[in-house]
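Re: your question from the hallway

Yes, I did run it. Sequences:
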Amino acid sequence: MIDPKKSFPILETIVNENKLIYFDNAATTQKHHSVIDEITKFYNKENSNIHRGVHYLSQLSTKKFEESRVAVKNFINAKHNHEIIFTRGTTDSINLLASCYSKILKSGDEIIISEMEHHSNIVPWQMCCENTGAKLKIVPITELGELDLNEFKNLVSSKTKLVSITHISNSLGTINPIKKIINLSHENGAKVLIDGAQAAAHVNVDVQDLNVDYYCFSAHKLYGPTGVGVLYGKEDLLNHLPPYQGGGEMIQEVTFEKTTYACLPHKFEAGTPNIGGVIAFKKAIDFLAETKVETMKKHEDHLLNYATESLNNINGIRIIGTSKKKSAIISFTVENIHHYDLGLILDKMGVAIRTGHHCTQPVMKKFNIAGTSRVSFAYYNTTEEIDYFILALKKAIKMLS
Amino acid sequence: MKSIQNIEEEIVEEFSMFDSWIDKYDYLIDLGKSLDILKDEFKIKENIIAGCQSQVWLHAENKNDTIEYHADSDAIMTKGIIALLIRVLSNQRPNDIIDAKLDFIKTIGLEEQLSQTRANGLKSMIKQMKIYALAYKHN
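Structure:
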């Protein structure tokens, strides 16, 4: 196996005289060199606004932009290219859908989310409910940090118009049984959005096999650039949704009497997108496809088990989120030590972790904690790095005790 | 009464003895641990200075034309810096507090603790200390 580290130039960084150990991959992954090279190449040789341009550069950038759409379509096995909508990121994708649903929901309708959602999968729906009079229902989580499926069965009904649940929890690491949730929702006539921000780079996603209605994720958590996201939606559903933002690209004909809208995907892509980012995103997908997500998952599972075991051997550590089905994300607390102090000292030793509530305040409330320290792994991380992290952690705990 | 300037110089001298970040952090942790306990009656919502990473409680009292500060935090490193700030600003006159530049924080290499990204409430704490001083001055 080629050392994956060599493909990620930033991992050579020295932090406070130590080699960087980057364990904050759930926040964003580092970028594959082919992604970085592609961005440079785009601005050096290809930059032009896409669609409608008749000149050479516009043709070129349009072609490459659309090739990225095909790459995403193949990556998640969508049926049609135009079911892939490019957005600014997962948050933008959810807001797009919530904004559309604000125009079609009415009082008496219900939306179901869960207690483990990222704030970006809570607040847009609260806003949507405020606008429409629809009700927001919350699936609780168990002590292990898993969705309470029995409670979900009680909540879902013919009133449910949309279920929006995360594929993998960003603070607990839990991999949710989304297929079961999708089936149960469909039995009740509800549509389902899955927030795949933490999933798309770590587990295989096949939207047709899942039969999911909408699925979203961000490029930057897939070794790709920031400012690019995807909203997948079934053709028929997207066609029936009202448009989101108005502007260029999304129209068919504009007159002051009446404007008609463009067809998919352009209906939802008003304005000039992050062209260079979308084009470079293809390189990240190529990297994932070549390495294979299953291969990466196997390695990440090994890291997860190794780190979990090492952490459990340290006195006073409590892992938050102990589901049997987890992605390589570990949140933990240390008895009598604040996560902020831990994060500061680990940083001095070159270890990048995340501390705080991870934009999941309801989860923190559920476990009655102010926040956690979180390590999250990617394909390029190693057990040697975990060994160093554990040593650094022990040193930090000693300093703070 | 020592001036703010004098106390800042003292602190800079104390920190100049440390060669490594570990010694410096160890000292801050000790300072944090030795900070006078803030009475529960002052650990109230109105006294909270919210930070995303750690939070700070700040209480101020007027004592013979000077201001006495009491504070606490849930994070020990934040508490260490609070101890330094209290040492510098507590029992000083409002005008001197308002004018204090607090350059010592940068000199001893802890300016990163006051950056917005740390979101630990310290920057807002200094602002709040000065606002108290301004309020007492006009009373």
